[in-house]
Amino acid sequence: MGVDLVPERSPEAIRIFTRALLRDLQALERILAEGLIESGIRRFGAEQEMFLVNQAWRPAPVAVEVLEDLDDEPFTTELARFNLEANLSPRVLEGSCFTDMHAEMDAYVDRVRQAARRHNAEVVLTGILPTLGKSDLSLENITPRARYYALNETMLAAGGGAFRLRIRGTDELMIEHDSVMLESCNTSCQVHLQVTADEFAHFYNVAQAVTGPVLAASVNSPLLFGRRLWAETRIALFQQSLDTRGADLHMREMSPRVRFGGSWLKSSVTELYQDDIATFRVLLARKVDEDPLAVLDRGDVPELQALQLYNSTVYRWNRPCYGVGGGKPHLRIECRALPAGPTTVDEMANAVLWIGAVLGIAKSTPDFAERMEFDDAKANFLTASRAGLHAGMAWLDGESAPADRIILEKLLPAAEEGLAAYPVDPKEADKYLDVVRRRVEAGTTGASWALRSLSKLKGAGTRGEQLAALTAATVRHQARGIPVSEWGPAELSEAGGWKYNYLRVEQYMTTSLTTVNQDELVELVAYLMDLRQVRHVLIEDKDHRLVGIVSYRSVLRLMAEGRTQAEAESTPVSAVMERDPVTVAPETPTLEAIRKMREHRVSALPVVRGGQLVGLVSETDFMPMAYQLLEDRLQEE
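Predicted structure:
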């Protein structure tokens, strides 16, 4: 998706593009048959994605401005205005290649950091930003590029409406969102490995198998919208945020557009492209200005423009990539499953483990696909996503073991052996693989560090302050450049003060709500108020739409009217509730919410999004802020 394009969605444009796509596939088959794919050299590469945050540690939509300051080819946009990406230089697997790439990665991140600070922003490397809110995913924050608007329009049209997200972990998250912006919650550190045409199928199968255990050691995304979900929530989020399958097609077996795959590859990279073209229709079309077969006839190398664009709209976790460099076509396997962060040291260590394990196992186990079931590799990937190092995994010849044992006893030795076959400085492998070894032995991934820190912060400050503290501590530790296995827990003081966590209603609103139906008894409302020590009960219909609110004063007023006990007990909620209450949206600024309370003389405001009830903010929620403000003012005296 590196090329900006004006969306072409007419049936004729799609047909013309599909013809070009099929012609590209023919050209690729000819390139393979004629032995034109580059061989005799082993390169690797990486892409570093980043979040930008403001002084409140929340998303800062300034990526376009930061990129204008940078004005350099390695840096590029992402879907959201609070993300950007740096493309690292491909390197040959030799000498100090990993240290050199790590230094380049640090330099790029530092350059972005310096540019971001000129816009009062900071850089965070993390799979999912803890402080991200649903209101940050509005189309106001989509990067103003034609290709992103095109992607949003086509994905919505393909899916027939809103994207539904349901993820269960320690907590549960169920939401709907009306744009593709859910995808922008994810940032990764993608790793590329160049392979030859002849070895592609075998190497790809091994890459599929090792991705699960490597991911178990790399998990760094346990939180989304404040909910504790999977160890690597990106996996579930990315699949569901781009799922174009209609809910009414439950009788059909259909593949999600984001997927691990369905079987081992048999002989050629073209099988993957053929499978994708047969499974997923074209979403985005563009004018293609090359005839790839004619290009081959004159002895040149085609770019395969249609195939490259199409491939960018099918999201395999290990994706096949065709490219042209130095006038020669080449093939790569791109691992997209690894998250950004917790530090560049950890990211580089993850990349070295994945690359080394692929090389080592591909060499030592030529019959790999015969000794491991594909379904086991797929299950390993999913269990790693859910449980990280606590996942149980299957391995060769029916062996099974916890993820940490698979990594320590199988992958690390294989990676050492795989890298030893190349002219790489031996210290390179030792340095980075030891980072993984210490992380696994300590049981401290980015995900476990975040959850332990959050547990330690329980009872201190608001949820918003806790999430801000996690983000601030992440930035502090990243600046020190030490791996996550050596991180201390986050401290609440790192959140930067209470006021940054009371800017918008969604940061402190109550989401665990006490609600009843309008036909329920008022006596039930009084019971719930006493049981849960709340002063307001919200009234909603079966579709969770707000229809009213009952306050403690309304119940007292009913009791003061002198009704008999029988009359009071039989009174429905609809008789005393306040209809059409004043409401706010989650993104409403705190000052506006306070103004509404004063103007309408109410002590609570239901929070509504898309007609549905999502929270409540009351005078009680402002008390911590009032205490802190009073204390700050008194200390100034």
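Summary: Confidence is low (pLDDT under 50) at residues 247-254.
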